[in-house]
Amino acid sequence: MYYMICSQDVENSLALRLQTREKHLARLQALTSQGRLLLAGPLPAVDAENPGEAGFTGSLVVAEFDSLEDAQKWADADPYLAAGVYQNSVVKPFKKVLP
């Protein structure tokens, strides 16, 4: 089943994001390689494709896991959480309807 992981950044997280981005993306690439990632991306702080110094307010990941518990464990192990980029993450089941 798919699960939605919506994470909220701390204030002024851009520098921490940039320092930790490689490790964060490596985990997402692993999900992609396993055919489990539906979508993932950051939430810009301003209405722009590239928010520049405004940075991001969080991230959204939708991926397949065996259970809600497994999805939560994956979210809890995110390098952004360990580095202090995320203040929290919400994990919920997700049912893909469209497209």
Helicity, in percent? Answer: 25-40%
The major sheet is characterized as: 4 strands, antiparallel
Which regions are unreliable across 5 or more consecutive residues at pLDDT < 50? none
Order of adjacent strands in the largest pleated sheet: 2-3-1-4
Specify Rg, calculated over alpha carbons: 13 Å
Please report the total strand number as a whole number: 4
Q: What general outline do the C-alpha atoms trace?
A: globular
Provide a descriptive summary of the structure in words:
- The protein is an alpha+beta fold and 99 residues long.
- It has three helices and four strands.
- The chain has helices at residues 14-33, 68-76, 79-83; strands at 2-9, 37-44, 56-64, 86-94.
- The mean pLDDT is 97.
Secondary-structure topology with pairs:
Blueprint: E1 2-9, H1 14-33, E2 37-44, E3 56-64, H2 68-76, H3 79-83, E4 86-94
Antiparallel strand pairs: 1-3, 1-4, 2-3
State the gist of this model:
It contains 3 helices and 4 strands, in the order E-H-E-E-H-H-E. With 99 residues, the protein is α+β, with helices and mostly antiparallel strands. The mean pLDDT is 97.
